[in-house]
Amino acid sequence: MQDVQSHLEKLRGEAAKCRLISGLATDEKKRELFSRLADHLCVLATDIANAIIAQKEADPIACSEVPRAAMGASGPCT
């Protein structure tokens, strides 16, 4: 479960980087591209967070090591 949590955090970090690049880009096409990438990464992160929550609800004992705060939305995906 920690591997999945690490992947979730990585996706959120990449989404944040894409948002930053989008905000700094002077070229409109690049701005739009990085904004779309950030949106897509946020969707993926949300899907993973939902899967973690579903797994925790299905087997709360096996998932007890995953911090609840780590599953919530944060960063650019809120």
Tell me about this structure:
By secondary structure, this protein is mainly alpha-helical. It has one domain. The protein is built from three helices and no strands. The protein has helices at 2-24, 28-58, 68-71. The chain starts with a helix and ends in a 7-residue tail after the last helix. The mean pLDDT is 86.
- Largest beta sheet, briefly? none
Structural class computed from helices and strand pairing: mainly alpha
Provide the helix percentage: over 70%
The value of Rg in angstroms is 15 Å
What is the residue-averaged pLDDT?
Answer: 86
Strand proportion, as a percent range, falls in under 5%
The dominant shape is: elongated
Give the number of helices: 3
Query: What's the β-strand tally?
Result: 0
Helix-strand topology string: HHH
List the helices and strands and how they pair.
Layout: H1 2-24, H2 28-58, H3 68-71
Kindly summarize this structure in a few lines:
The chain is mainly alpha-helical and 78 residues long. It has one domain (2-71).
What distinguishing features does this structure have?
single chain; 78 residues; mainly alpha; 74% helix; 0% strand; elongated
